[in-house]
Design brief:
By secondary structure, this protein is an alpha+beta fold. It has a domain of about 80 residues. About 55% of the residues lie in helices and about 10% in strands. The protein has 16 helices and seven strands. It has a five-stranded antiparallel β-sheet with strand order 4-5-6-1-7. Strand 4 and strand 5 form a beta hairpin. Helix 1 packs antiparallel against helix 12, helix 4 runs antiparallel to helix 6 and helix 12 runs antiparallel to helix 14.
Length: about 400
C-alpha cells in the first residue's frame, strides 16, 4: 500500500504542478468570455448627452460603437460628430502584432488583438456622422461624410466588400437628403448585386425605383430602425472541408424577409447581410490567417481538455487510494468527496475546449434588426401593412427614427 501511495503522490504531484496553470487558463477564459458577452446598454440609460458620452473613454471598441448608436438616437449630434471620426480612424485598419497573433493560438480569437471594423460598420458609422451633420444644417460636411461611407465599402482594407443593406441606406438617403448626390447609381448597383433567389424582390424594387427616377419621380424616405441585431451562436465545422469555413455561425432568432407593399410606398429590409459578413470571417478566401489560427487552436483546445480530464481522474484515483489506505474510518467519505471534486473538474473540460476554439464574433451589437422605409404619408403609430405585422414583437415595440425629412 505504501508503494501505491508513493506512486500516487508522484503522479498527483506532476498533475498538481499543472493544476494551477490549467485552472488559471480556465478562470481566465471564463473571465474573458464574461467580459465579451456583458451588456453595456444598462450604463447609458440617461438621456443626457454628456452622461452618455463620458462612457466613450472605455477601451472596448464594441462598447464605443454601441455608444455612438445611443448618442445618435438620443439626438446627441455634436457628440456623434466629435467621437465618431475618432473611432473610425482608431479601428479602420488591422494592426498586426506577432505576439498577439501567436498568443491567440492558445486562447480564444480576439483575446489579444484589437477589433477592426467591418466594411459595413465603417459605412454605417459614416452615415450616422453624415446624418448628424445634416441635422445640424451643415450640408457640406454631411455630403463629405456620405461620400466617405461609399469609400468605406469600396476601400481594399483588411475588411472589405459592398453590402446590400448599406447600399439601400445610401440610395434612400441620396433620394431624401439635399446634398446633391444622385441616387440612381446606388439603385443600379443594388439591382446588379441582388443575384440570390432570396433577393429577387429587392432587385425588382430597385428596378422599379430606377424607372421612377428616369420618369423624374422624386421620393423622400422616412427611415425607422426597428429591434436589435440578434445574438449569435456557433459550432465547430472542421470536418466539412467543402464549406471552406471552420465554423457554423447562426443567430438565435430569424431575420425577417424583405417585404414591400403593393404600391412600393413602404418596405422592410433586415440587416441579414451584416450577419453574412460576420459569417464570412473564417472563410479561407477572405481571411486566411484567421482560418489557419482556428486550425491551430484545435489541438491546443483538445490538449487543455485532456489535461483537465487527467487532473480530475488523478484527484479521483488519489483520493480513493488515500481513503482506503491505512484503515481510515472516514475513507468512504474521502473517496466520495474526491469523486465529486474530480467529476466536477472533468465536466469543465468541454467548456475549456469550447472557449479555446471560440471564434471572434465581436460585432456592432446596438444596430437594428430591420430598417423600415416609408413615404411622406407614413405614420408608424397607425401602420397596418402586413410586412410590419409579421415582424417579431420586439421589433414592433423598439422603434427609433434614423431619419425623418418631415422633422
Amino acid at each position: 500500500m505504501d508503494s501505491l501511495i508513493s506512486k500516487y503522490f508522484k503522479f498527483i504531484n506532476f498533475n498538481l504542478r499543472n493544476c494551477f496553470v490549467i485552472l488559471t487558463i480556465n478562470c481566465f477564459l471564463h473571465l474573458i468570455y464574461g467580459c465579451q458577452t456583458s451588456s453595456h446598454f444598462t450604463k447609458i440609460s440617461s438621456s443626457d448627452c454628456s452622461q452618455i458620452s463620458k462612457f466613450f473613454n472605455q477601451d472596448n471598441v464594441i462598447e464605443k460603437l454601441d455608444d455612438i448608436s445611443e448618442l445618435y438616437f438620443k439626438k446627441c449630434y455634436d457628440e456623434v460628430i466629435l467621437l465618431g471620426p475618432k473611432l473610425r480612424t482608431q479601428s479602420r485598419d488591422k494592426l498586426y502584432s506577432l505576439t498577439a497573433e501567436v498568443s491567440e493560438v492558445f486562447f480564444p480569437e480576439g483575446t489579444f488583438t484589437e477589433y477592426t471594423l467591418e466594411s459595413h460598420e465603417r459605412a454605417y458609422l459614416s452615415l450616422l456622422i453624415s446624418l448628424s451633420y445634416y441635422q445640424k444644417n451643415d450640408r457640406i460636411s454631411a455630403r463629405v461624410e456620405f461620400l466617405k461611407s461609399i469609400d468605406d465599402t469600396q476601400a481594399q482594407l483588411y475588411n472589405y466588400g459592398n453590402d446590400l443593406t448599406i447600399l439601400i441606406l445610401q440610395a434612400t438617403l441620396a433620394d431624401t437628403l439635399d446634398i446633391q448626390i444622385d441616387s440612381r447609381p446606388f439603385w443600379n448597383k443594388i439591382a446588379e448585386l441582388s443575384t440570390d433567389k432570396n433577393e429577387f424582390d429587392i432587385k425588382k424594387y430597385a428596378e422599379n425605383r430606377i424607372s421612377e427616377i428616369d420618369s423624374h419621380k422624386n421620393r423622400k424616405f422616412i427611415i425607422k430602425a426597428l429591434g436589435y441585431f440578434p445574438e449569435l451562436d456557433w459550432k465547430p465545422n472542421f470536418v466539412n472541408f467543402s464549406s471552406h469555413n471552420n465554423y457554423t455561425i447562426t443567430t438565435k432568432s430569424e431575420f425577417p424577409q424583405f417585404c414591400t407593399e403593393e404600391d412600393n410606398s413602404n418596405f422592410i429590409l433586415s440587416t441579414k447581410s451584416w450577419f453574412n459578413k460576420i459569417n464570412l470571417r473564417y472563410h479561407t478566401d477572405y481571411h486566411p490567417l484567421l482560418n489557419f489560427k482556428s486550425w491551430a487552436r484545435l489541438p491546443a483546445g483538445l490538449t487543455y481538455g485532456i489535461a483537465t480530464v487527467s487532473l480530475g481522474g488523478a484527484i479521483i484515483f488519489g483520493g480513493c487510494a488515500i481513503g482506503s489506505g491505512n484503515g481510515r474510518a472516514n475513507g468512504g467519505e474521502i473517496c466520495k468527496a474526491s469523486i465529486e471534486a474530480g467529476a466536477t473538474i472533468m465536466s469543465k473540460s468541454t467548456d475549456i475546449v469550447a472557449h479555446t476554439m471560440e471564434p471572434d464574433l465581436r460585432h456592432w451589437k446596438h444596430v437594428p434588426l430591420v430598417f423600415l422605409f416609408g413615404d411622406s404619408k407614413f405614420n408608424i403609430n397607425s401602420i397596418s401593412f402586413n410586412c410590419f405585422k409579421k415582424l417579431p414583437e420586439e421589433a414592433q415595440q423598439i422603434r427609433r427614427t434614423l431619419f425623418d425629412p418631415r422633422s
